[in-house]
Amino acid sequence: MKKLCTIAAGLLVLTACAQKHQKEGTARQEPTTITWIEDKPGPALQPHTLYPEVPDSLWDALGLHEGVPTSMSCFLLRTEGKTILLDAGLGAPFSQLMPKLTEQGVTPEELRLIYLTHLHPDHIGGLLKDGQAVFPKAEVYVNRVEAEAWLAMEGDRSKLAKSVLQAYNSRLHLFEAGDTLEGGVVSLAAYGHTPGHTVFQKDSILVIADLVHGAALQLEHPEYCPTYDMDPDAARASRLRLLQYARKNHLTMYGMHLPAPGSIKPARP
Ligand SMILES: [Zn+2]
């Protein structure tokens, strides 16, 4: 992405940027907050079959007889005067995204920023209703690698991703891993779960998306992948690297499949 403020040569543009920063300067006084939006209501458990490589003995030793506690969630980040939706849930009849946004005082018409971690259905289903964009004014940010991979994919599994990219086509922004997005949110490559799976960092907040699918298993044993990881070797390497990064920098991790309250602070290494 090009940063207009820094590359623009015209005085007029620079003045406009300065004014914008001044306005944002006031809003920046407000603390950053992140709200857990549990899209699928109620606690849920992942079965052993999701992690076929985990031996029965380990499964039992970890006390996972009933399954791994999980959720289907997204997050609302407020920072630097901006309100940012991170993923959009399933868009299923039971989905709680809309009522929870209302609780937060956010209407679909007002929401301006949506950052997507990846294009699996449980993260983008809530962006469409009857094939139409649910958020008529939102700018949607997707990692370029992720968007291109799903656009090139054949068959039914890429249908929803393609429909979402199409519906938001005029407001779609493809970023590169490492880019800083509006609100000072940094995108970090966490490839493997999907080709361009991305996590987002704002200060001590690390939104890990599906990097950790089953915390009760994978925090201790990050080497095990759920069958959802499209490239298990890459997913494992990303998980090991970013868990170490989170621990070293004492970041709180917010995950789309972590059980209530949707976040976890790993112990320092
Ligand atoms: Zn997911």
- What overall form do the CA principal axes indicate? globular
Topology pattern, helix = H, strand = E: HHEEHEEEHEHEEEHHEEEEEHHEE
Strand content: 15-25%
Quaternary: single chain
Count of discrete domains: 1
Give the fraction of residues assigned to helices. 25-40%
Which CATH architecture is right?
A: 4-Layer Sandwich
CATH class: Alpha Beta
Q: Give the rounded overall mean pLDDT.
A: 91
| Largest sheet, spatial ordering of strands | 1-4-5-6-9-10
**CATH topology-level fold name:** Metallo-beta-lactamase, Chain A
Determine the structural class based on helices, strands and strand pairing.
Answer: alpha/beta
Sheet with the most strands, sense and barrel status: 6 strands, mixed
Number of helices: 9
Write out the CATH superfamily name: Ribonuclease Z/Hydroxyacylglutathione hydrolase-like
What topology emerges from the helices and strands here?
Layout: H1 4-7, H2 11-27, E1 33-38, E2 44-46, H3 56-61, E3 68-70, E4 73-79, E5 82-86, H4 97-103, E6 113-115, H5 121-124, E7 128-129, E8 132-133, E9 139-143, H6 144-152, H7 159-167, E10 172-175, E11 180-181, E12 185-189, E13 198-202, E14 205-209, H8 215-218, H9 232-248, E15 252-255, E16 263-264
Bound molecules: zinc ion (ZN).
